[in-house]
Design a protein that fits this description.
Blueprint (H helix, E strand, L loop, with lengths): L2 E6 L16 H17 L4 E6 L29 E5 L10 H8 L3 E7 L1 H14 L4 E9 L3 E3 L2 E3 L1 H15 L2 E3 L1 H6 L1
Parallel strand pairs: 1-2, 1-4, 2-3, 4-5, 5-8
Antiparallel strand pairs: 6-7
Helix pairs in contact: 3-4
Length: about 180
């Protein structure tokens, strides 16, 4: 199998102090950096997905801002592909499928943000396209949510989505498990 690593939305607006700071983002970025370094060492293609809201309709990921740029610890190396998306699903109206085809990718590893949105959507879409997927859970981050008066801490949101993905969509591993495999 030919592997590819997809790094989703690890941009400055999600960092501490950013417009949409995520809980546990520092640890997730540190783990993501280790996974990216391992992929580069093994010549596994690293594909960076960058979320941009083109009309500035949201308070984050606005075009031509510091917040939309990649966090320096996980920034693309020269020659690595960048897929720009305007939707939650990294496959929707993007070049992601073309990039994966270019590498002959048959197996995907997904890391990044946010666990409950873009990680979930990309993982499910990838499986629908026939890819076996591994999600490295501690290289992903999310935030607190509230629905119908119920507040869910980020840790619970993350755990619920990782449990759902592990149930029927992906292998869900820690960074340590992934790097030692």
């Amino acid at each position: 199998m030919t592997k590819a690593l997809i790094v989703i939305d690890l941009q400055n607006d999600y960092a501490t102090g950013g417009s949409m700071a995520l809980k546990g983002i520092e640890a997730a970025v540190a783990n993501a950096a280790a996974i990216i370094a391992d992929a580069r060492k093994k010549h596994v293609p690293v594909i960076h997905v960058q979320h941009v809201f083109p009309d500035g309709e949201m308070h984050f990921f606005k075009p031509d801002t510091f917040g939309v740029e990649f966090q320096k610890e996980v920034a693309p190396a020269p020659g690595e592909d960048i897929v720009v998306k305007n939707h939650i699903n990294s496959f929707l109206k993007t070049t992601l499928q073309d990039v994966l085809d270019k590498y002959g990718a048959t197996e995907l590893t997904i890391i990044g943000a946010m666990s409950h949105m873009c990680i979930d959507a990309c993982t499910r879409a990838a499986v629908d396209f026939g890819y076996p997927v591994t999600v490295v859970h501690d290289a992903c981050a999310t935030l607190d949510l509230e629905f119908n008066g119920v507040k869910a801490p980020a840790e619970h949101v993350h755990a619920a989505f990782m449990a759902a993905l592990a149930f029927a969509y992906a292998q869900v591993k820690s960074t340590k498990e992934y790097l030692s495999a």
